[in-house]
Structure of Lipoprotein signal peptidase:
Amino acid sequence: MNMQAHRTLPWYSLAFAVFAADQAAKTTVDVATPLGWSYPVTPFFNLVHVLNPGAAFSFLAGAGGWQRWFFLAIAIAASAWLIWMLRQTRRRSESLAFSLILGGALGNAFDRALRGQVIDYLDFHLTGWHWPAFNAADIAITLGAACLVIASFIASRQPQAQEKA
């Protein structure tokens, strides 16, 4: 195994694990529950089966169908860039972030390509107000983005730290 493959394999493996877990959950929801299904788990959390043809917070959900290809193209371009970024030597925190974002982007891109829209199944609510439903891919993307923000703050405070993957 060459040095680059040795360095990138864990990060690509993490991205694949995120993708696989996301797709397993979405497939389970899709196969085991009818569209529109909702199951209260706690007073503030439901498992649901909803479709989102848009982006985060259902942005452009009612745009008529073109948004499927637009968001799919963005996800593919972002994934290609993330794969390239993971090939570079960088801090572990950055590689972790890129891996999480890559796995989530591929999970939602796969849904758009296969189903035309994304399956969401996590619904948090409080006093009748519901946060937009989301999925494991969305969680991974959000965690990855948070890791990037934290890593940038740490790097700006300690520029001499060269913790590389």
User: Anything to note?
Assistant: The radius of gyration is 18 Å.
